[in-house]
């Protein structure tokens, strides 16, 4: 099972994925505190990435998922270690929570030799296949058919794996979205499509350019799928939904399409102030911040303040240590420029 830098497994594993809905017992509370830890670590990672960008350490652009942590955390807790995650360019936390080392992720953002892709991929191309993180994709919607292919391969090989494909609301108006859903439904493939509807496709409100109110859920019926609309800021709802869809896929009962309503606290990317959004809208969504909301719920249902304070302190230690390790890493040598380009790893054959 993939583990974080402090030795605690991030992935919830098979036992949790098959357990009954919330029982409010000790084991259930432990699992929910585990999800809270993932959410906090994800938030700290993103806040750190932003600070490092302002300090000139992050190379290129970066798309942050601050405010959307409940979705990635709940799915990471529900998935088995060998399940497969596909995500968008806003994929730092999906990759992190599947088990990729935070120091190597930050090193990749910094363009360092120890980066998860050798410092050559950067923020939008994070990949760690050893953790089941099958890549962040910079082209909107491009990874949906790839996730379908991975699900088809898992079904053919009988591995029992499920592919989980995260995408934004803007991808629902891309042809690949419809093609992937149709093929997955026709072949009854073990794939879960998760639309992280943060209400904006870059600078444009999704509802202003989409004929239906819910861009993913309202289209599910066209492919014979149930419409699943969930509060993406509610970690418990997200976990129950994730577990159910993943088990459905694993049992050979076909794909699911989930629309999780959420909100990014900042702009589209690091260069976007997000000031095209109504002030009261931003305030309303920030009042529903998934992390303090979940902390209050856990406190009311048996967790102690000391437990949660310890979770937060430990997460901070993990991320701080990751920053120091990434900062100390060297830049890649010039010799790697001609590698990872072609099927044989090099480019010599072209000469």
Rounded mean pLDDT is 91
Parts with pLDDT < 50 across at least 5 consecutive residues: 1-22
Please name the CATH architecture.
3-Layer(aba) Sandwich
Q: Give the name of the CATH superfamily.
A: Thiamin diphosphate (ThDP)-binding fold, Pyr/PP domains
Total helical elements: 11
Notable traits:
disordered N terminus; 351 residues; two-stranded antiparallel ribbon; six-stranded parallel sheet; 41% helix; 11 helices; Rossmann fold; alpha/beta; globular
Written account of the structure:
This protein has 351 residues and is α/β, with parallel strands linked by helices. The chain has a single domain, classed as Thiamin diphosphate (ThDP)-binding fold, Pyr/PP domains (Rossmann fold, 3-Layer(aba) Sandwich), CATH 3.40.50. Helices cover 41% and strands 11% of the residues. It is built from eleven helices and eight strands. A six-stranded parallel beta sheet has the order 2-1-3-4-8-7, with helices on both faces. It has a two-stranded antiparallel ribbon with strand order 5-6. Helix 5 crosses helix 11. It is globular and about 50 Å long. The relative contact order is 0.16. The N terminus is likely disordered.
Topology:
Layout lengths: L12 H5 L8 H29 L14 H10 L5 E5 L3 H6 L4 H9 L22 E5 L5 H15 L5 E6 L6 H12 L4 E7 L2 E2 L2 E2 L22 E4 L3 H16 L5 E6 L17 H8 L3 H11 L4 H24 L23
Parallel strand pairs: 1-2, 1-3, 3-4, 4-8, 7-8
Antiparallel strand pairs: 5-6
């Amino acid at each position: 099972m993939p583990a974080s830098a402090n030795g605690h497994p991030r992935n919830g594993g098979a036992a949790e994925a098959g357990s009954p809905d919330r029982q409010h017992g000790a084991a259930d509370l432990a699992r929910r505190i585990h999800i809270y830890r993932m959410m906090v670590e994800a938030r700290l990672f993103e806040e750190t990435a932003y600070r490092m960008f302002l300090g000139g350490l992050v190379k290129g652009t970066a798309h942050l998922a601050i405010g959307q942590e409940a979705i990635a955390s709940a799915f990471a807790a529900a998935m088995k270690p060998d399940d497969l995650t596909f995500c968008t360019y806003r994929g730092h936390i999906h990759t992190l929570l599947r088990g990729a080392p935070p120091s190597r992720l930050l090193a990749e953002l910094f363009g360092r030799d120890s980066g998860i892709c050798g410092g050559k991929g950067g923020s939008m191309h994070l990949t760690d296949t050893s953790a089941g993180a099958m890549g962040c994709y910079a082209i909107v919607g491009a990874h949906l058919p790839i996730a379908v292919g991975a699900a088809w391969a898992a079904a053919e090989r009988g591995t029992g794996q499920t592919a989980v494909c995260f995408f934004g609301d803007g991808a629902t108006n891309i042809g690949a979205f419809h093609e992937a859903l149709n093929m997955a439904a026709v072949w009854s493939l073990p794939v879960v499509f998760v639309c992280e509807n943060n209400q904006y496709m870059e600078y444009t409100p999704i509802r202003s350019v989409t004929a239906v109110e819910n861009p993913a859920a309202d289209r599910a019926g066209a492919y014979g799928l149930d419409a699943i609309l969930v509060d993406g800021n509610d970690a418990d709802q997200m976990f129950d939904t994730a577990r159910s869809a993943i088990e459905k896929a694993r049992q050979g009962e076909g794909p699911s399409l989930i629309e999780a309503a959420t909100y990014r606290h900042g702009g589209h990317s690091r260069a976007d102030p997000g000031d095209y959004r109504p002030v009261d809208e931003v305030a309303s969504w920030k009042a529903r911040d998934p992390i303090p909301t979940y902390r209050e719920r856990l406190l009311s249902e048996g967790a102690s303040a000391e437990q949660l304070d310890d979770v937060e302190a430990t997460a901070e230690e993990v991320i701080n240590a990751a920053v120091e390790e990434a900062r100390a890493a060297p830049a890649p040598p010039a010799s790697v420029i001609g590698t990872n380009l072609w099927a044989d790893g090099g480019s010599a054959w072209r000469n």
